[in-house]
Write a structure and sequence with these properties.
mainly beta; 1 helix; 5 strands
C-alpha cells in the first residue's frame, strides 16, 4: 500500500491532467491542484478470505459457493 501525490488539472468535473508531484517535465504545476491518493491493491483480500471453503481448480485456489 502506498500514498502518492499528484498534480491535477480539472475542467469542472472532468480530469484533464494528472502527473506525479515533483515531475520535472510538468511546466504548469503552479496552476494545479495537489491530490493525494492511496493505492491498496489487496483491499478485497480480507473479504475473500472470510469464506471457509476453498477448492483447488486448474492450479489456483478458488472459493466454493454455499451450495458446493
Amino acid at each position: 500500500m502506498g500514498k502518492y501525490k499528484f498534480n491535477t488539472r480539472w475542467n469542472e468535473d472532468e480530469l484533464k491532467c494528472a502527473c506525479l508531484f515533483g515531475n520535472p517535465g510538468c511546466d504548469r504545476f503552479k496552476t494545479c491542484e495537489t491530490l493525494e491518493l492511496t493505492l491498496n491493491p489487496y483491499g478485497d483480500i480480507e473479504e475473500c478470505m472470510k469464506a471457509r471453503k476453498y477448492k483447488r481448480k486448474k492450479g489456483a485456489l478458488r472459493q466454493m459457493n454455499k451450495d458446493g
